[in-house]
């Protein structure tokens, strides 16, 4: 009987464990997580949880029956401190050693910190776990104003949630526009305008120069532009870094993430890795991705391969974000040398396509969920595309799949 261990109770680890058990029902599969609870979904933490619509932990990754419902053993409060590759064992912080035949590492990522605003500083919040979300949710209800450092997805989702709760929000973004690493200018402008409608003060091209608590406990922040913002509360959302320390200490190849091949195998053939923590081969070299679908899909491939399959992870990447009544989505691989085509939609709706060599490579959309589902299939199937047809809202995208 094969023993498979999975480190990390996020979507990559949870899906890896479930897929491994499905692939090899005779295997003993154990999921180790340092958190005290069943694996839960993170996307609601910056949206519905802050708005009070759902409780943290309401959405379980493994479904209502939890991980045990899939015949996988869950060990909570189990922090892995080392991997002994020679002995094929994982060492836990309580001194236990667990043997494995195959191991999946899915340790995810952790927020990048600002030295002047470290994790643990009063009134300063970083958002990664359900505990973080609970703390922020309750702090927002006691606050009149919020400073968000970072105009990326997490920062803007928190800003949108806070603004809808009636909190006055200021956002500092270093780049000349928000979401610069995520989407094109036009999409970013629609999102910016929605924030402005809710009174969010977005300051681009500047960031935090200094920050210190005042006598009343509030935080006095100086921007790079020389302004001062006094905030009841600060949220830092300046990106994440891969949690690859365990893998690196075990001598596995790492390079801004755990390096894996297309089958999610690390430099040790008995060890696989998936999710936010890894760099994997994309069409233009090694890439790292931080999104839910990637974590789930790659986790499942890593789990199956740990249980004896030889599947290849070939994904069309995608992400989504929800801010106010905007459902923002990106699908595909952005590439150089593209033709960009806009398809007019009503209201705040937007679709921007990128085409290379007569094929769709990438698209961004706002409130265009059905169209984006067709876009994914057009990209996956490499369907030849006419730019004029894409630009014409009278030509349904789903019909192009049948050509
Ligand atoms: C607030 C928030 C909102 C998000 N919203 C969206 C969204 O709207 N759309 C989208 O596409 N993506 C979203 N994401 C991103 C998505 O949730 C992540 O990409 C995904 O969770 C990554 O999954 P993962 O399993 O690789 O890592 P994680 O989810 O980070 O899980 C890693 C797990 O490993 C555990 N762990 C780490 N080290 C150890 C150790 N040594 N021993 C034991 N356990 C360990 C951690 O505690 C954690 O439970 C959001 C993320 C956050 C934080």
Q: Summed up, what is this model?
A:
By secondary structure, the protein is an alpha/beta fold.
Question: Which helices and strands occur, and which strands form pairs?
Answer:
Elements: E1 3-7, H1 11-23, E2 28-32, H2 48-51, E3 73-75, E4 80-84, E5 89-92, E6 97-99, E7 102-105, E8 109-111, E9 124-125, H3 130-141, E10 145-149, H4 153-164, E11 168-173, H5 185-197, E12 201-204, E13 208-213, E14 219-223, E15 228-231, E16 233-236, E17 240-242, H6 245-249, E18 258-259, E19 271-273, E20 278-282, E21 285-288, H7 292-306, E22 318-323, E23 326-332, E24 339-344, E25 350-356, E26 359-366, H8 369-380, H9 387-391, H10 397-400
Parallel strand pairs: 1-2, 1-7, 2-3, 7-19, 9-16, 10-11, 10-16, 11-12, 18-20
Antiparallel strand pairs: 4-5, 5-6, 8-17, 13-14, 14-15, 20-21, 22-23, 23-26, 24-25, 25-26
Helix pairs in contact: 1-7
Bound molecules: flavin-adenine dinucleotide (FAD).
Flavin-adenine dinucleotide binds next to helix 1, helix 7 and strand 22.
Q: Report the radius of gyration as a whole number of Å.
A: 22 Å
First and last CA, distance: 49 Å
Structural class: alpha/beta
Number of domains: 3
CATH class of the largest domain: Alpha Beta
Indicate the proportion of strand residues: 25-35%
> Count the helices. How many?
10
So, the CATH homologous superfamily of the largest domain? FAD/NAD(P)-binding domain
Q: How are the strands of the largest sheet arranged?
A: 3-2-1-7-19
Cofactors and ligands present? flavin-adenine dinucleotide
Shape: globular
* Average pLDDT figure: 95
CATH topology of the largest domain: FAD/NAD(P)-binding domain
Count of strand segments: 26
Annotated CATH architecture of the largest domain: 3-Layer(bba) Sandwich
State the major sheet: 5 strands, parallel
Low-confidence stretches: none
- Helicity range: 10-25%
